[in-house]
Specification:
Elements (H helix, E strand, L loop, with lengths): L31 H12 L7 H32 L3 E2 L7 E2 L3 H9 L1 H42 L10 H14 L9 H29 L14 H17 L7 H5 L8 H31 L17 H26 L1
Antiparallel strand pairs: 1-2
Helix pairs in contact: 1-6, 1-9, 2-7, 2-9, 3-4, 4-5, 4-10, 6-9, 6-10
Organism: Quercus rubra (Northern red oak)
Keywords: Amino-acid transport, Auxin signaling pathway, Membrane, Symport, Transmembrane, Transmembrane helix, Transport
Subcellular location: Endomembrane system
């Protein structure tokens, strides 16, 4: 592999060019470490803060075990996708498959591409909606945290989400006007730092709460429910939360298209995926298990916005601000995928 083809770069989330269109002669500079940063940015999201509730529904055995199982499934599916980047040979094939949808078309045909396209767009739309809601909830949580600090933990401190959703939308309109937004590699680094920051804060607060309680809360079977049907519903909802915590399969090939070679891109991407999934799974286990150990059956849906913690209020405000900053960039990345 070499020559002028290696000196071309497509954006992280760009749309694959058609064979008859001339390509912009840019150089691919991606490395193992930049791809790890991209993956962590794509995987670790604000959903990590709800994993304590997920473990609470499943219990001490099934909760952590299922996180490990889903991590393994993600690694297997990612390795398969990595080998689809070059066609027909996964290491030295002349054709580059630069997006998930293009891979579906090449390997499964146009009919499968149309069906897959509907599902992918629906997934991306749902993810973007979740970004808006989560960002608004975190902004509202900052205001509520300050209210509780001033007026006491029993104060009503009720605020709506509509204003914050509109504010988030206004920010996205401004951000969407930035040219070549998808080429800002520093954005992924900043987003990854924000992810680590609020995850660390959630883990630290849970650990501190366990020490304060002097015991580990929770049970093997998880939170009891009034009926079997209600319990099954909560269990399946917990399954969905864990599955949603590893949502980067559709951008694997876009990330891989930023890598320089040699070594072959699929080898670098597989190593990056292994490292990134291992790191994120450790975060998930720590955040979910410490949160459940701290609150037991009273575990909130989100350990930062559900106000399992009230103090130190400034730390909770900072963590929620990190969530908002992360989602501002994440929403733009999702929008580029859709377009």
């Amino acid at each position: 592999m070499g020559g002028e083809e290696e000196d071309q770069e497509s954006p992280l989330l760009g749309i694959a060019s058609q064979p008859d269109e001339p390509e912009e002669p840019l150089k691919r500079t991606g490395t193992l470490w930049t791809s790890i940063a991209y993956i962590i940015t794509g995987v670790i999201g604000a959903g990590v803060l709800s994993l304590a509730w997920t473990v609470a529904q499943l219990g001490w055995i099934a909760g952590p075990l299922l996180m490990i199982v889903f991590a393994g499934i993600t690694i297997i599916s990612t390795n398969l996708l990595c080998d689809c980047y070059r066609h027909p040979d996964p290491e030295c094939g002349p054709a580059r498959i630069r997006s998930y949808m293009e891979a579906v078309k090449v390997y499964l045909g146009e009919k499968s591409q149309k069906v897959s396209g509907v599902l992918v767009l629906e997934s991306l739309w749902g993810g973007a909606a979740a970004y808006v809601i989560t960002a608004a909830t975190s902004m509202r949580a900052i205001q509520k945290s300050n209210c509780y600090h001033r007026e006491g933990h029993q104060a009503p401190c009720a605020y709506g989400d509509t204003f914050y959703m509109l504010l988030f939308g206004l920010v996205q309109i401004v951000m969407s006007q930035i040219p070549d937004f998808h080429k800002m590699e520093w954005l992924s680094v900043v987003a990854a730092m924000m992810s680590f920051t609020y995850s660390f804060i959630g883990i630290a607060l849970g650990f501190a709460k366990v020490i304060e309680n002097g015991k580990i809360m929770g049970s093997i079977t998880g939170v009891p429910a009034s009926t079997l049907a209600n319990k099954l519903w909560l269990v399946f909802e917990a399954f969905g939360d864990i599955a949603f915590a590893y949502p980067y399969s559709i951008i694997v090939l876009e990330i891989q298209d930023t890598l320089k070679s040699p070594p072959p891109e699929n080898q670098t991407m597989k190593r990056a995926s292994m490292v990134a999934i291992f790191v994120t799974t450790c975060f998930y286990l720590c955040c979910g298990c410490f949160g459940y150990a701290a609150f037991g059956n009273d575990t909130p849906g989100n350990i930062l916005t559900g106000f399992g913690f009230y103090e130190p209020y400034w730390l909770i405000d900072f963590a929620n601000a990190c969530v908002v900053l992360h989602l501002v960039g994440g929403y733009q990345s999702a929008s580029i995928c859709i377009l």
